[in-house]
Amino acid sequence: MNKRRICYIVTGIISILFIIFITVLILSQTVFKPKYPILQTLSSTVDGVSTHVSPPLDVQLNFTLTLQMLVKNPNVADFAYKTVENSVFYRDRLVGNLTLPSSSLPAKGSVILLCPLVLQIDKFVADLGDVIQDILQRKIVIETKANMPGIITVLGIFKVHVKTVSHCKLELSFPTMAIERQVCELDAKL
Ligand SMILES: *[C@@H]1O[C@H](CO)[C@@H](O)[C@H](O)[C@H]1NC(C)=O
Ligand SMILES: *[C@@H]1O[C@H](CO)[C@@H](O)[C@H](O)[C@H]1NC(C)=O
């Protein structure tokens, strides 16, 4: 082989590698570009309500809040979440929590998770006077926070860490604990 021929072959190989590189780069920025997974609270239900109120100091507020959550993977790539940590707050105090185990979703996959939170609101509240005030106004406001850290695996090689958080604010009416209003928002970080 003469020098010129070797030169052609080397140039050819470099061009092919370059084209493959550009193609992978473009695909990873378009079709395979990681998108936020969706974590949405579809609905919430209350059951097992058991209350006992005799002011000023004896207030018991027990119920189970079950969140129905949708996890959706919009990616053309696998998504694995480590956990779904659910916390419930009443007046900024943690009153209940539940951590769901890890799982993974295939490309474009989705799943509905049920998250039953057993709450005993009075137990964790600093000032029972606040609870009594809410009871007199027949309105209890609680907030839920679901935290879903996970990894998107693009083309089976690139791993992208994502964190999705969903907040909801629920207004319950006392004494039935029926859910009057539910406002949720989604927050995700790549
Ligand atoms: C609320 O739950 C606690 C713990 O399970 C229990 O001790 C208490 O009696 C319950 N209160 C009512 C009113 O059901
Ligand atoms: C949160 O979960 C842990 C572990 O299950 C439990 O020990 C703790 O009491 C929970 N906190 C509340 C406020 O429910």
Automatic annotation (TrEMBL):
Instruction: Tell me where in this chain the Late embryogenesis abundant protein LEA-2 subgroup domain is found.
Output: 70-163
Source taxon at top rank: Eukaryota
Task: Give the subcellular location.
Answer: Membrane
Residue stretches in coiled coil: none
Q: What are the alphabetically sorted keywords of the record?
A: Membrane, Transmembrane, Transmembrane helix
GO cellular component annotations, sorted alphabetically? membrane
Keyword Membrane among UniProt keywords: yes
Keyword Transmembrane helix in the entry? The reply is yes
Note the InterPro entries from the entry: LEA_2, NDR1-like
A GO biological process this protein is involved in? defense response to other organism
**Membrane topology designation:** Single-pass membrane protein
Transmembrane residue ranges:
7-27
Q: What is this protein called?
A: Late embryogenesis abundant protein LEA-2 subgroup domain-containing protein
Q: Which organism is it from?
A: Microthlaspi erraticum
